[in-house]
Amino acid sequence: MATKRITGFSDQIMALVKALRSETPDCVAAGVVDMATGMLLSYETVDTHPTEVLDLLAGATLDLFQGRTVLMIEDVFKERRGVQNDQHYFQEILVNSENLTHLFIRMNDSQDVVAVAVCRKSVNVGMLFAQARRVMKEYGGI
After folding, report:
1. What is the pLDDT of residue 54?
2. Which residue has the higher pLDDT, 101 or 83?
3. If residue 128 lies in a helix (H) or strand (E), which one and from where to where?
4. Are the C-beta atoms of residues 131 and 25 closer than 8 Å to each other?
5. How far apart are alpha carbons 57 and 31 in whole angstroms?
6. More exposed terminus of the chain, fewer Cβ within 10 Å: N or C?
7. Rounded distance, CA 99 to CA 62, Å?
8. What pLDDT, in 10s, does the model give residues 43-89?
9. Using N-to-C axis directions, what is the helix angle for 51-66 and 68-81, rounded to 10°?
10. Counting Cβ atoms within 10 Å, is residue 17 exposed (0-12), middle (13-18) or buried (19+)?
11. C-alpha closest to that of 32 among 21, 24, 42, 19
12. Has residue 141 got a pLDDT over 80?
């Protein structure tokens, strides 16, 4: 499979969101969060959502991946395993809510950028991971 050639970072992010939304099974929403700025860079959804909810998604993503306690856990794991690089230890997080499954995946090329795929809870989790990872590899540099 050929890798997509996209010129700018903004174009890459928009293409990634569109591909996650259309190619991830049972996906109802996709987005990309920049944890350095705390901003939702791009999103696509089947429903309309209040701006406050979308803003909270960015903050929740930041807490999941880089909250104080999470960073402490990463530091302990790195120390115990002798890891010397700055790459974050947690790369993917799966969260199930009452009706939805949320998959958060950190970009390899930009560790402060996380893609989110939100799917119906009935999604086959194995297929969700397989398709989301494929899309991330193709568009997001993992």
Report:
1. 77
2. 101
3. helix 125-135
4. yes
5. 9
6. N
7. 22
8. 999 888 777 887 788 889 999 998 999 999 988 988 898 888 878 88
9. 30
10. buried
11. 42
12. no
Tokens standing for residue 72: 């402490």
**Per the structure block, which two tokens stand in for 88?**
């974050």
Length of the chain measured in residues: 142
Q: Is residue 53 classed exposed, middle or buried when 0-12, 13-18 and 19+ CB atoms within 10 A define those classes?
A: exposed
> Which residues lie below 8 Å from residue 1, measured CB to CB, with a gap of 6+?
138
Task: Show the domains of the chain with their CATH numbers.
Answer: 27-140 (3.30.450.30)
3-state SS of 18-81 is HHHHHHCCCEEEEEEEECCCCEEEEEEECCCCCHHHHHHHHHHHHHHHHCHHHHHHHHHHHHHH
Tell me the pTM.
Answer: 0.87
Q: Average pLDDT of the chain?
A: 88
How is residue 116 written in tokens? Answer: 């989110």
> Which is it for the CA torsion 49, 20, 24, 93, positive or negative?
negative
Q: Quick one: which H or E segment has residue 92?
A: strand 92-96
12, two tokens: 């890459």
